[in-house]
Amino acid sequence: MYKTKYFNIRELCHPDIISSIGEHNSWLRLDEFCLMDLDIIRKRWGSPIYINIDQFDSRGLRPPNDPDGAFYSIHKSGKAFDLVPKNGKTEELYQFLVRLIISGDLHSINTLEHKSYTVHRGWVHIACMNTEKRPLIIKP
Ligand SMILES: [Zn+2]
Question: What's the CA-to-centroid distance between 75 and ligand 1, angstroms?
Fold first, then answer.
């Protein structure tokens, strides 16, 4: 089991899931290669990145009935995360992630939601999807 160095389970997983199945089983439901990539991203970025924090509890793994986002969101598979840079440089984080995906230094994160959907709202959506494209830019 891979556990992230930079993020605890509450930052990665909706509280309803943790309270229902416990922390151990919550870790089991996250994609290990995405978790490795989150640590690479955080280390290379060099300053704090928020995922779940305070009232924002759906930026990582979401329950099946979560009202946030799309019904078939890949967030419900443990393969998508919404990243918020503490320093507020969301556009820079987006461009940093584009370059990092192109570099081939990530294991499985290969997808970004087009910046016009999220960056002005303060976050960057990243995911692992079944594609050869690096990056795949999705428009929901
Ligand atoms: Zn997202």
Answer: 6
Counted domains in the chain: 1
**What's the CATH code of the domain at 21?**
3.30.1380
Q: How many whole angstroms from 108 Cα to the centroid of ligand 1?
A: 16
Distance 69 CA to ligand 1 centre (A): 7
Domain that holds residue 47: 9-138
pTM, to two decimals: 0.96
Hey, what are 4's tokens?
A: 């992230």
| pLDDT class of 140 with cuts at 50, 70, 90 | confident
